Backbone:
């Protein structure tokens, strides 16, 4: 669907006075947009203080030319047309309010979006002002997909900026935990985090570490847990799951595994859990405590 403005009753019902609270929330909202854009490879770059530079690049379908002027306009979205559409959006979209990019533009010194759709000869680079309007536009080199660059986040909110600067290391850890959570929930994605102008590369993170994604959905979920928590923990665990169709009918394990990733997202709902085996070792609680901050 094309991006359009939500009606006033929908804005009143779902609008938020604070869409973005900190740099980690910016990363989360950009991740949601990338996944909704059918991206399979998402790279994130964040400055060491988490404020100067936040970038996300994806290989999704890009932003259509007719939608570009409204992409940073508040309460404009392609996900729903009216309040009643919320009844059917579950499982199909991670965002629908049309506030994140508008808020990022308003709270930053600069917001730049570079995007290209299939069939376009070149990409377009758009810079937005604080009102979400395009200030400059030019052609650029970029593959199919989208890159969003937020510079000097919280530039116009000095008290909040100062508060974030004091906890920049904790904020970077929060960003990493968000990415790890998405890897567990969406193990078919390739995700990476790079800390810009860092003294070393210890803060960088990549999923999957091996570079290869698992073909099986269940294998991918378990491998994601191993990637994040380590083999010592997951060697004492097993993956349990149950699936239901959209009409509430439970699907047996064999059918669910056979359908796997080929099935449309809104046709089947699956609950997955990596749980301790019945015969796991006595040191399992100690291993859990080791990973408590991430787990």
Residues:
């Amino acid at each position: 669907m094309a991006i359009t403005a939500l009606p006033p009753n929908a804005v009143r019902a779902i609008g938020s006075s604070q869409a973005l609270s900190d740099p980690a929330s910016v990363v989360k909202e950009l991740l949601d947009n990338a996944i909704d854009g059918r991206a399979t490879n998402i790279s994130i770059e964040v400055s060491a203080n988490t404020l100067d530079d936040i970038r996300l690049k994806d290989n999704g379908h890009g932003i259509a030319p007719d939608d570009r002027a409204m992409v940073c306009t508040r309460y404009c979205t392609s996900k729903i047309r009216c309040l009643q559409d919320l009844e059917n959006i579950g499982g199909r979209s991670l965002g629908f309010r049309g506030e994140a990019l508008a808020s990022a533009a308003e709270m930053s010194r600069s917001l730049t979006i570079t995007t290209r759709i299939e069939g376009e000869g070149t990409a377009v680079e758009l810079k937005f002002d604080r009102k979400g309007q395009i200030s400059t536009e030019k052609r650029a080199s970029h593959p199919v997909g989208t890159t969003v660059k937020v510079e000097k986040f919280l530039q116009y909110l000095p008290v909040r900026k100062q508060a974030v600067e004091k906890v920049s290391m904790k904020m970077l850890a929060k960003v990493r935990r968000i990415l790890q959570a998405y890897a567990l929930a969406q193990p078919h994605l390739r995700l990476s985090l790079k800390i810009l102008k860092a003294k070393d590369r210890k803060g960088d993170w990549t999923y999957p570490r091996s570079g290869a994604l698992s073909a099986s959905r269940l294998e991918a979920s378990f491998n994601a847990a191993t990637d994040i928590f380590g083999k010592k923990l997951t060697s004492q665990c097993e993956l349990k799951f149950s699936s239901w169709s959209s009409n509430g009918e439970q699907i047996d394990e064999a059918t669910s595994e056979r359908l796997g990733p080929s099935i449309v997202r809104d046709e089947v709902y699956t609950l997955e859990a990596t749980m301790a085996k019945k015969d796991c070792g006595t040191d399992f609680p100690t291993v859990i405590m080791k990973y408590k901050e991430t787990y």
Summary: The CA atoms of residues 180 and 228 lie 7 Å apart. The first helix runs from residue 8 to 14.
